[in-house]
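In the current project phase, the collection of sequences with tokenised folds has grown. A sample record is quoted in full directly below:
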Amino acid sequence: MINIVDYGVGNIFSLKSSLDYLGIKAELTGDPEKILASEKVILPGVGSFGDAMEMLKRRDLIPAILQVAKKGTPLLGICLGMQILFQRGFEYGEREGLGLISGSVEDMNKLLKDKELPLPQMGWNAISFPKDREKSPLFKYTPEGSYVYFVHSYSAVNCEDSIIATCDYSYPVTAAVAKDNIFGTQFHPEKSGEVGLNILKAFHEL
């Protein structure tokens, strides 16, 4: 059973539909006890870093998520759900994240080398895998150069040790990260066609 954390800021319908299509049993829940009992957890998110953390705090979900991570349950953050896995974010001021992965999330306006590129980065981009390490099991069915769908204007930085995929948007955008049982994708697997379905399938098989 995969539990999808329902905390009011997730693009949940598309994600649940993708898992249903794959025949993967999944439940939306905001119940900390159910989250703690999960075989796997997905943390979605759309919106701002600070709002997401505030909603998790208001619903008393942060302790459950931290405990899930500590006990080794596979956890996948998607888009904003990936960003809040980091130590801090700088959207509308500095905000503290879950601190499960080292690094921070910063405004892409400061990171773009080509200032004429539009923000948010919206659309399909090819992903590349680090050459100096083994391909992550999250991408066991995903060839390098596969296209996935992004919508974001903030990007994770100072997290080189955890990067498992990047994409080129005039600089190497952190497209996916992993640390032990914690995974994150900046892109939306549930909006990335067959490639995204294969990523969700691989997560289910972890």
In short: The chain has a mean pLDDT of 96. The CA atoms of residues 132 and 164 lie 10 Å apart. The chain is about 25% helix and 30% strand.
